[in-house]
Specification:
4 helices; globular; four-stranded mixed sheet; Ribosomal Protein S5, domain 2; 10 strands
Length: 198
């Protein structure tokens, strides 16, 4: 049995005048998802993230969707980011870096991650409009909220693609796989930084 530095399971609730969100997360799970944000396409993307990252993820969400979906998507990103940060840091005995390219038909997305405990994001996904009723501009808002609240360094780049559903889903899956690879346990690595802490 590998001794982890901290607990790998957590539960966080965040409540504002706009949303009330509870996220339960198990970093080294089986990819089991129980998600209800009230936004069907967003739920589908989060289920794909859970499945391919192997992170068990439960989300209960009440949001001011009578206005639009912005606050709900943004705040879910905040809470997932906070939950990830709580169970990932301080970084020890994991690979720290991860990358993946995922194709979905004509779409190809690449994601690179550094679990550096510093926030930075490069987001290059040239899409506009909607998928169903979902405003695709909210994809960037979600990832921005997650990255800056974890915090972590992520570059998510679309190499090619036409179908917005394919592009976004490949992006979520690439993020999931790169995170999973960054979280691979390595007992020999100690703290993966010359600083001595992350």
């Amino acid at each position: 049995m590998i001794k982890m530095v901290q607990e790998t399971k957590t539960k966080i609730t965040r409540e504002t005048k706009e949303t009330k969100i509870t996220v339960t997360l198990n970093l080294y799970g089986k990819g089991t998802a129980n998600i209800d944000t009230g936004i069907g396409f967003f739920d589908h993307m989060l289920e794909a993230f859970s499945k391919h990252s192997h992170i068990d993820l439960s989300i209960e969400c009440q949001g001011d969707r009578h206005i639009d979906d912005h606050h709900t998507v943004e705040d879910v990103g905040i809470v997932i980011g906070q939950a990830l940060g709580k169970v990932i840091y301080p970084v020890e005995q994991i690979e720290r870096f991860g990358n993946a390219t995922v194709i979905m038909d004509e779409a190809s997305l690449s994601c690179d991650i550094d679990l550096s405990n510093r926030a930075y994001m490069v987001f290059d996904m040239p899409i506009e409009g909607k998928v169903g009723n979902f405003d695709v501009e909210l994809v960037e808002e979600f990832f921005k909220s997650l990255v800056f609240n974890a915090p972590l360094n992520m570059h998510l780049i679309c190499a090619r693609g036409k179908n917005k559903h394919h592009i976004i889903e490949a992006g979520f899956k690439a993020f999931a796989l790169s995170l999973r690879r960054a979280l691979v346990i390595n007992k020999n690595v100690g703290i993966p930084s010359t600083k001595g802490t992350l």
